[in-house]
Design a protein that fits this description.
alpha/beta; globular; binds zinc ion
Length: 257
């Protein structure tokens, strides 16, 4: 399985997941059709499936057009069927999606939207997290609350350390700048920020990341860090010493960063 980034819209990534044995590909989150088909053509593969993580337009905006252009199965949360265009295969937590020789398991991770799902390939140690877990960040809470986001991120964080995480946006530099304000003494954050800036200066993606790297740098997985807790409580004295309150305040601080 090979995974290629397809930059679309302003800062979104679609991901082309290539099965090299049968020369087919799946696209994770199809916002725009032309760049995806162009990437598939360049690889010499046929797109046969779409894996939608959530209903936002910048993730599913190309589903209808792609389904008209070529025969595809469109996977997405069965409970969001009315909001995922061209859906053919509704899935729920624990369901498996077979793509050529690979198998993805569906993980339910609501909060950014109420129906958000991730696609986890355990054998390949890969997970597609849409707008829930970003590099050094998490999605905004449009249809859920901080407790829900905390447990959704917990489900992802339970995957093995070397799992590669592919998310839906290039937000890394800004996210790490925010993380550095809460943990100025965290060397892993400073190093990753310098690396991310150089990637972007050269036009390279900063995605994927790994869960090990996220545990070391992502403020939304680091609510137990004493330095982060002290920084958050300084800015939100009402947070007290409660894990969920620390997490919720971290999210609020990021909203206005
Ligand atoms: Zn979204």
């Amino acid at each position: 399985m090979r995974i290629l980034p397809v930059p679309v819209l302003q800062d979104n990534y679609s991901w082309l997941v290539v099965d090299e044995a049968d020369r087919t590909a799946a696209v994770v989150d199809c916002a725009e059709v032309a760049p995806v088909l162009e990437a598939a053509r360049a690889e010499g593969v046929r797109v046969t499936a779409v894996l939608s993580t959530h209903h936002h337009f910048d993730h599913v905006g190309g589903n209808e057009e792609l389904a008209l252009a070529t025969p595809v199965r469109v996977y997405g949360n069965a409970d969001d069927a009315s909001r995922i265009p061209a859906l053919t295969d509704g899935v729920r937590a624990g369901d498996r999606v077979h793509l050529g020789g690979s198998v993805a398991e569906v993980i339910f991770i609501p909060a950014h939207t109420s129906g958000h799902i991730a696609y986890h390939f355990p054998r390949e140690r890969v997970v597609f997290t849409g707008d829930t877990l970003f590099v050094a960040g998490c999605g905004r809470l449009f249809e859920g609350d901080p407790g829900q986001m905390m447990s959704s991120l917990g489900r992802l964080a339970a995957l093995p350390d070397d799992t590669r995480v592919y998310c839906g946006h290039e937000y890394t530099v800004r996210n790490l700048e925010f993380a550095a304000t809460l943990e100025p003494g965290n060397r892993a954050i400073a190093d990753k920020l310098a690396w991310a800036r150089s990637c972007r200066a050269e036009g390279r993606p900063t995605v994927p990341t790994t869960l090990a790297s996220e545990r070391a740098t992502n403020p939304f997985l680091r609510w137990s860090s004493p330095e982060l807790r002290a920084s958050v409580r300084e800015r939100c004295p009402e947070a007290g010493d409660d894990d969920l309150e620390i997490f919720a305040c971290t999210r609020r601080l990021k909203d206005s960063f």
